[in-house]
Amino acid sequence: MTTKTFDAVVIGAGPGGYVAAIRLAQLGKKTALVERESLGGVCLNWGCIPSKAFIAAGNLVDEIRGAADRGILVSEPKVDVAKLRAFKEGVVKKLVSGVGALEKGNGVEVLKGKATFVGPNAVEVDAGGEKTRIEAAAFIVATGARPIAIPGFAYGKDVWSAKEALDLPEVPGRLVVIGGGVIGLELGTVYAKLGSKVTIVEALPALLTGVDPEAVRIVQKGLRQRGVDVHLNAKAKGLDAVAGALSVRIEVDGKEQAIPADKVLVAVGFRPNTEGIGLEAAGVKLDAKGYVQVDDQLRSSNPAVFAIGDIVGPPFLAHKASKEGEIAAEVIAGHRSARDWVAMPGAIFTDPEVATVGLSEEQARAKGLDPLVGKFAFAALGRAIAIDHTEGFVKVIADRESKLLLGVTMVGPEASDLIAEATLALEMGAYVEDVALTVHAHPTLAEAFMEASKAALGEAIHAINRPERPRKDKGAAPA
């Protein structure tokens, strides 16, 4: 067995790991990046990127179907599954090769194989039977997470995880999606646009738990318009196959019913990939749910081992993992760096899109704050009307007394892009007056953030300023 020595080793080449390796090399560290599958991890190969390629295609199909409303006459679009799959694979290949070029260009040595800790400062990399011992002063573990399986729904030909769904083997006539969270709704919406009859089964009382209920109602309306059936408080009990026909058994309010299906997509969450990599040999402690315990510098119970991304717990966001990768690399290089962001943005690529950053109304009140709320509907915005996408709104949450911006919820066209301005505003400690006074180009969708901020101050121009309604918990809100 050969032995190699590095200043730092990164295990896992997803959006956290490959970024960490680049940053380490930039900071002058001799770095190795170990990956057992493909550079880019789940995000680039089977998650964020391929799903957005499919979502873009689904949106295009939707636009074509509605083109006649804007005077453009076209025939009913047809989906060539093989060509769409090839388009997706081309997108993935381009980005993965780009990651490889970046690693090489920065002097990172990429090693293919499975890494297992054999001590506090060493791992063994198994590349199909050929093993290499790698020693380093510091390690960053970025092995990600995998979909949770549920009893009675073993992954295979007829039961998909997100990975199989994004391989696009076919567009099934009937798709049952178990899980009404982000992944379930994003992929369910895509398949509905591509032609599937989609049914969502969610065990909780609402879809997208934790998201502003007003925003969720807009998303549910979009699902209904696309013929998607939604079952809430519904438990998936099992999958039956009779004479080649599939049926999903669910229980709602103690009563069982069957939903016919051609394929089933299970999207009920993720579990961390912390087993089988020798963390115990490295002296790395896990919490009760299997996540690595880290401090704000991403350092584990072993000072030489850092952990980032999904294995340190939710939110499961690629951009969170990337930021943590940069922080861990900087700490290893002796810089003063820590997880000190004000708020982490999130985007949900349903139709319409939902994006959030900071606190919601409910979260602000739970913290004992008195939130000031401003809301502006896209239906009153010139650009939204011009592009025929008027669904949704922008809502700003601020501290009533100081007017400090606390959070923003957006649901509507291009919300995933628009949330960036709100994130910067929170990071810079902006007040609603700062946003309201900032001139926004016209006509643009971004004006909705400015208008919502003006509405919070009672100064909206393109909406009627109305007094706040009394709250049941504390009576009338102060003027």
Quickly name the level 1 CATH class of the largest domain.
Alpha Beta
Main sheet specs = 7 strands, mixed
Q: Can you tell me the CATH superfamily of the largest domain?
A: FAD/NAD(P)-binding domain
**β-strand number:** 22
CATH topology of the largest domain: FAD/NAD(P)-binding domain
Q: Mean pLDDT, as a whole number?
A: 95
Helix/sheet category: alpha/beta
* Low-confidence sequence ranges: 474-479
Gyration radius over CA:
24 Å
Q: How far is it from the N-terminal to the C-terminal residue, by CA?
A: 75 Å
Specify the number of helices: 13
Overall shape: it is globular
| CATH architecture descriptor name of the largest domain | 3-Layer(bba) Sandwich
Q: Helix proportion of residues, in percent?
A: 25-40%
In short:
The chain has 479 residues and is α/β, with parallel strands linked by helices. It has helices spanning 17-26, 41-46, 48-65, 81-105, 162-167, 182-194, 213-225, 318-332, 361-366, 382-386, 415-427, 432-437, 447-456, and strands spanning 2-11, 31-35, 109-112, 114-119, 122-127, 130-141, 145-147, 159-160, 174-178, 197-201, 229-231, 234-242, 245-252, 255-261, 263-266, 270-272, 305-307, 346-348, 353-358, 371-377, 393-399, 405-412.
